[in-house]
C-alpha cells in the first residue's frame, strides 16, 4: 500500500493560506487530501434543500479542481468520520493525519475519537490553529484569566497582534500530493437537492471596508461584506482578512475580533455548549414560550415590519443583516418572552453562516444572559429602530411590500405592554435565591 499523510479538510475549504495543509505538504509523505460528508451531522438536517450542504459541495468541487491542478486529488467520503478513517486505512498506509482545530463541542469530541484511533494504530495526529487568529489561552488578562468583556479583550488582542504579527502559510505553492483519482459524490447521492440560494463572493473590496463603519447598520445599503459564510466554512483565510482590514477600518477589524472572542468564551466556559446561559442566574427565567407567537415570528407575521422583514430575508436567503438580527432576537426574547434557545435553534437551522460560537453569543447578548451582553432592561423599540436604520423604509418595502395593506397583521403585542411584562419577568427571575 502507498504510504501517505492525510490532510483532513473541515472548516478550511481552500488551498490558499491553510495552516494544516501547509504543514502536511512540507512533511516526508505525499499528502492525500480528504473531505468527509459526516453522516452524524447530515442526518440531523431536516431540510433536504439545506443551502449549507450545497455551499460545501460547490466549495469542495472547486477544491478538488485546485488539487488536481497540483498533481493530486481530493478523496470525498460520505460516512461517520471514524468509519471513513478505518476504510482509508485498508487502502493506504497512513503515516499521519493532519487537520485544523475545531472548537465546537461536537468537533472536539469527534477529533478526540479520531486521535485515540490514530494512537492505537501508531498513526501520528496533528492539529493546527487556522480558523482564528488567537485561540484558547493566547489572549488572557493580566491576572491570567479569560476575558468576558469584549472591549478589554479586543485591546489585548491588538496588543498581542503587535507582539506576534500574523504569519501566513503559502500552502498553495507546494505540490506534494499523492497521485490518485476519486469520484465526487453528487448532491443527490448525499440525500440533498439544490437550494436555489445565491451565495456571495469570497472577497471584499477595500472601499467597502473603509466605509463599513458608516454604512454597516443600514440594512438597505450594500454596506456589509457578506463574508460570514466563507469564514464559517473556511473558503477564505481569517489571516488574509485581518491583514486587509488593518489600517482601513477599526470597526471592521473589531467584527473579526468578535469571532475570536466568542471562540474564546466557548473554550473557557463550556457550559454555554450545554444549553446554559453564560450567566447561570438567567436560567431561572420563566418563559411564556407561546408556540403560535413563535410561529408568527418565524414566518415574519408579527405585525412589526422591521422584524418581519428580517425573518423573511432569513427564510428566503439564509442571511440576515446584523443590525436586524439584533432587532428580531430582542423582539423574540423581550416582546414575546420566548426562550432565547428557541431562536438560537431556528437561526442554527436557517443561517448559511451558522456558527455555534457566534450564534450562541449573539442570542445570549440579546437576552442579557451572555458575556458583555446588552443589559436585560434594554428593550429595542422596533419603531425607533426602523426610524433610525431604515428611515426611508427601503428594506421593509423590499421584504414586506404589503405592510401598509389591510391584509398585513396587526402587531402581535403592544410594545409598552411587552416592555413592562419582560422587565417584571427578569426582575422576578433574578431575585430568586
From TrEMBL:
- GO molecular function per UniProt: deoxyribodipyrimidine photo-lyase activity
This protein's record includes keyword Flavoprotein: yes
Instruction: Report which superkingdom the organism of origin falls in.
Output: Bacteria
Entry-linked InterPro entries? Crypto/Photolyase_FAD-like_sf (IPR036134), Crypto/Photolyase_N_sf (IPR036155), Cryptochr/Photolyase_FAD-bd (IPR005101), Cryptochrome/DNA_photolyase_1 (IPR002081), DNA_photolyase_1_CS_C (IPR018394), DNA_photolyase_N (IPR006050), Rossmann-like_a/b/a_fold (IPR014729)
* Domain annotation Photolyase/cryptochrome alpha/beta: ranges: 3-133
Q: Which cofactors, if any, are listed as required? A: FAD; (6R)-5,10-methylene-5,6,7,8-tetrahydrofolate
Concerning PROSITE patterns, the annotation shows: DNA_PHOTOLYASES_1_1 (PS00394), DNA_PHOTOLYASES_1_2 (PS00691), PHR_CRY_ALPHA_BETA (PS51645)
Q: Which UniProt keywords apply?
A: Chromophore, FAD, Flavoprotein, Lyase
Task: Spell out the Pfam families in the cross-references.
Answer: DNA_photolyase (PF00875), FAD_binding_7 (PF03441)
- From the Swiss-Prot or TrEMBL record, give the protein name: Deoxyribodipyrimidine photo-lyase
Origin species:
Aquirufa avitistagni
